[in-house]
Amino acid sequence: MSIYDLKGRRALVTGGAQGLGESYARALAAAGAQVAIADLQDRGAEVAADLGEGHHFVKHDVADDTSWQEAIDSTVSALGGLDILINNAGVEITSLLTDIDAHEARKLLDVNVLGTILGLKHGLRAMRPGGSAGEGGTIINVASVAARISFPGIAVYSATKSAIDRLTRVAAMESGKLGYGVRVNCLLPGLVPNAMGAALAGDVAEIGLFDSPEAAVQAVVELTPSGRLAEEKDITEGLMFLASDQSRFVNGVALQVDGGMGM
User: Would you call 157 a catalytic residue per the annotation?
Assistant: First the structure.
């Protein structure tokens, strides 16, 4: 049972096949929304099927303009509209600044920044008056506490997440000024001990920044006033607030759900 009521809403979650994206999709469905999962991984189809009848999967590359149009069209056709867009898909590649590989940096920029830009482009087009959905709605861009801290080894990743924060504010202003009826907000999750978080801890230890993955995790905990890592449900609650009518006058903000780490 969810404390949020999203009955009648149609949501699209990018990167919804695993990790936090899957948690978002399941929480939205539990609150009554119909959910389309967009992902390059075929496991997204399994997650959509597990959510039950009325949910949808579309194979999707967030860095591709045509793929975005197809994902939006498929979602609107399958669900009958689009009210909530979660720009969640992202990648993290750890590297010292002196060792950054140009190809890897471009991948981070393509997926994290361009992917969000294209999501905003096609989401706003669909939700604005005269669009394929045309009833307004809300867009939530998922950034990271990395946008607010100076943690070593994740310079390019941090830059991409800072860009998402700024994109959110400009998009919210454009949407408002042009009468689109779409709220645009940003979620900044703290570190979660899931597969992505564990990989980061291992990577920063491997490049010599910490003695071990455990030491890296402890460093994060020590930077966090709440004294622990985030749990997926902590982050999901923040997203659900932004997706719901409880945040109807919240627009253009970056909501930090990080235990105070990025304050």
Answer: yes
